[in-house]
Amino acid sequence: MSEASAVLDASALLCLVLDEPGAGRVTAALESGDCCISAVNLAEAVAKLDEAGVPMEEIEPLAASLRLHVEPFDQAQAVQCGLLRRSTRSLGLSLGDRACLQLALARDAVALTADRAWVKVTNGARIEVIR
Question: How far apart are CA 25 and CA 90, in angstroms?
Fold first, then answer.
């Protein structure tokens, strides 16, 4: 796969799936064919859908229908993600948030999120808050 121009956070994926404000920006990123998500963020989005009562038999086909490249979370990514903890702790960013930021940094891509706290991130990542 070529370098992704956009990396989705779980909140961006949920925004799309739940047809919330900002879904159009996520759709545009997906339609560009130059978009991915960390396996950590996909797991986080699936957990939120499950908690919201979306039936298990609907979640996997829904994820597959997006034709979104899922980037495995390997040892190097885990180390870099862990190193983001100190610089993002005061913002309340989760492990999933840091996984998205790390992937965006590694790919020189923009991180798409619905979480407004990300505007205060100062580690050099390109971030777009979609609503």
Answer: 28
